[in-house]
Amino acid sequence: MENRTARLTILVDPRKKKLFEELCARQDLNSSQVVRKLMRQYILENLPEEEIPDWLAPHAKGEDGRKQGA
Fold first, then answer.
1. 3-state helix/strand/coil string of the chain
2. For helices 31-46 and 14-26, angle between their N-to-C axes, nearest 10 degrees
3. Sequence ranges of the domains in the chain
4. What's the chain's average pLDDT?
């Protein structure tokens, strides 16, 4: 897990926000945890493997050293 944090402010439809928070709560997660997971997945799915930073690499690679899902 990353040691530092930065604030990300986004504007969303209030109905989507409410539904999102309800779904997060059902899984005993907060919205920040889910957004961080989504960001990590997006980066790993869209960034070329050679550009994945070392601090993210443990999440990015399977046992064979390849990006998961590749």
1. CCCCCCCCCCCCCHHHHHHHHHHHHHCCCCHHHHHHHHHHHHHHHHCCHHHCCCCCHHHHECCCCCECCC
2. 100
3. 30-59
4. 84
Instruction: Please indicate whether residue 4 or residue 64 has the higher confidence score (pLDDT).
Output: 4
- List residues bridging with 67 in a β-sheet: 61
Cα–Cα distance for residue pair 19/15, rounded to 1 Å: 6
pLDDT at residue 70 greater than cutoff 80 = no
End-to-end C-alpha distance for the chain, whole angstroms: 23
Amino acid at 26: R
